[in-house]
Every structure is written in structure tokens, then in C-alpha cells.
Amino acid sequence: MRCVFDGHNDVLLRLLQSGGRTACESFLTGRDDALDLPKAQKGGFAGGFFAHFVPSATDLDDKLSAMSAPQYDLELPDPIDWEDAVAVVMEQAAILLDLERLGAVKIVRSVADIHTAMEQGKIAAIFHIEGAEAIDADLHSLDLFHAAGLRSLGPVWSRPTIFGEGVPFRFPSNGDIGAGLTGHGKRLIRRCNALGILVDLSHLNEAGFWDVARLSDAPLVATHSNAYAVTPHSRNLTDDQLRAIADSDGMVGLNFATAFLRDDGKMDAATPISQMLVHLDHMIEILGEDRVGLGSDYDGAMVPEALTTVADLPHLTEAMTAHGYDAALIDKICHKNWLRVLAKTWGEPAR
Length: 351
Description:
By secondary structure, the protein is α/β, with parallel strands linked by helices.
């Protein structure tokens, strides 16, 4: 079984919504959701980016229904105030700390920590914030969260923040929507670079992407995004964006969400793994074998039915083998490329 290090999951939000800190024990014993300790052990899930995400008041059933149409354009949720957002992120951070105290995960601050967690049989968890609503304009909370272990940050989800604008859930559409980074956003990028916090480009609109590309001295990384040339969805990256990521020696994690995989842009679990390989082939062609990984979005999206939980990850690696990927390339996609780009971003020697 291959070791998998993954670019994105939303299990902390699921735990928050099902009882918060009182639900942490269920992560150790098994839950109905996509990610827990027993499923991780079964599927070879060794760790990844644990998103701290502040949800908007939206009807998920309505959203999924809309994204099953031939075309759709979901209205962006309203911005969220800092006071509301920081409370939710702190709740999720407390859940992650409890999972560490229970021995299920290790919050990692370095690639050396990731290797240690793997050796100890614990899930390596990167403290990641998806959408920077919990960061104030003066960036005081950024420094505080960094001290608590924050090592990755997405300036936006798909709603505007004081830092920039995200892309809507729109198909067909590209990400050339809205203005670039604000003055606060540019300061945020520079401060993340100074602290060694990875800047996640997933969800950021195209103008913001190019602002980060001009400003950042770190590898460009999209933790959970796919190829626009294959699926013309606003959440996916154009070939020009992929080339910029390659030039920076960054990487992209393949998103399992079916709307960003399928030719028709639909959220439909009846999506074959072969469609994921089409995106991987395209991204490898442009980015190279060292700059593509996995960014599942488990517990945050509808994924192919053959990959319903992390326990099913061997189905994907088996499909890669059948597709003609050799063992060295599969290991790069499954974990080695993430460890490489994290070491470069966090200022560590590669191992």
C-alpha cells in the first residue's frame, strides 16, 4: 500500500458540525464521513492539509442540485466579519489540538515533523486556513496563528475578503473574474513569505493569482485545483497559470470534486477514476512529474463513488499503475512532491 499525503480535507468542519470537541473520539473509532483514523490506516492516508474553514449559511442540497445542471452560476455568499470568522477558526483549531492530544494526529510545522509522524504511525496534519476572514487587516492574528502552528493559508475561499476575491462556482467559466489583491492582500503575501507560510492559490481569481506570482518569492502552490483545458470551470487553472507554477517550481494537488473533473462540470458521483487521470496527464505534461500531487477535498466535496473515503485511495493508485505510471511517478504524486515543495516553502533541506 502506498503512502498518501494530501493537499486538502475538511474533516475539522465536519467534526465541528457534529458536536465539536465532543466528537473527537469518533475520529479515532470511526465515523460516517470520508476521513477518520481507521479509514486512514486502511487506505494509507499518512497526512495532509487540515483546512480551518468558516462556512457560509448556504443550502448544500440546493447547491448540489444547481451544479447538476448543464450550466450554472451560483451567487457568491456574503463576506464574513473577522469577529465571526476568528471564533470559528479557533474552535476548529481546538478540535485539531484535541486530536493531537488523543494521539490520532501530529500537528506538523516542518517536513521533519511529517517524517516523524509517519514513523510514529500518526496522521501528519498541516494547520491550514481556507479563506483568510479570520486574519485581521493588521495581520496580528496571522502571527498568533503561526505561533500556534499555521503553515498554510488561502487568502480567499469563493467569497471576497479584505485581501482579494475568489471565483464563483460557475460553469462554463474561467477564473478571470474580479479585481486583484487589495493593498491588505499584498501585505498578507509578503508577511506569509517572511513567516514561511505557504500561500494557497486554490479559489483565488486570476487577477489575484498573477498578483501573487509577481509578489511572492516562494513556490506557487494550488493545493486542490485541476486543469481548465480539460474541464472549463472557474475553479480550474489555465495552462498559462500551470506554466507559471512550473516556472516557480511549485505544484498543484488534484481536486477529487467531480464538478472540477468532468467535461460537463456536474457534481455527479458516477464519475470514473479515468477522468482524474486525464487531468493528471495534462498537468504532468505542463508541470512535469515533480510538481503534481493529490488535493482530494475529502469531507468537503462530492467525489467519485470509487473513492468515497480515504480507505478507497488504493483504487486510485491501482488505476495509475494500470494507466502506465511507474512506481517512482506514483510515489511522487502520492507524497514525495508535497514533501519537496513544503521543504522549499518552509526553508528546509529536502530529504
